[in-house]
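Repro:
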Amino acid sequence: IKTNGKKIRYKYDEIDKPYYSSLWEDENTICVFEGEFHSTEKYFHDINWKNVYKNINDSFSFIQIDKQKLIITFVTSKFGLENLFYFYDGENFCISDSFWEIADLVCNSEGDISQENVKEAMNGCYPIIDGTYLNNVFYVQPSIIGTYSQKDGLKLERYFEFRYLPDEKMDNKKVSEEINRLIKKAIIKVKEECGDVRYAYGLSGGLDS
């Protein structure tokens, strides 16, 4: 989805996966949803979806276009597994789930390549934080709700923060009991979402690190 002046142009490729992608449109709104989900779709067909996305634990990305107000709203899940990328140079804005789609639109010369981000990637596999290999092209981090309009530009807000609060009073027995409780809770959740299916989970004690 890209904007130029007061025009909004969008391109959508249908993905042949059940419960993976949705595109719906009415006279006022265009919505695009992608994600591995089981029960989240109902939230985004609800006109009040902004009131519930903070409580969704499935993986998704979501883009909504208000045709009348020319406002683009986008959300990434807490896990950030469904990628979104955007280009913004202060005037023009483009957002897509494909880095290469954006690159085809905005990369015209070697000068568009970010030398600093390439150096960061050479040292750590990926550019630091939300950068990419191109200038003004960024990765939308997890737990972000963003809006773009010609009037107000681009605004990003983080709606969820992972927090780790260690409890030094817990002994090994209590830790084992807590791990057991969480595993049982996860199994119940899997059965609620997926029904009577085979599943597996893996545990790592972090010994290799």
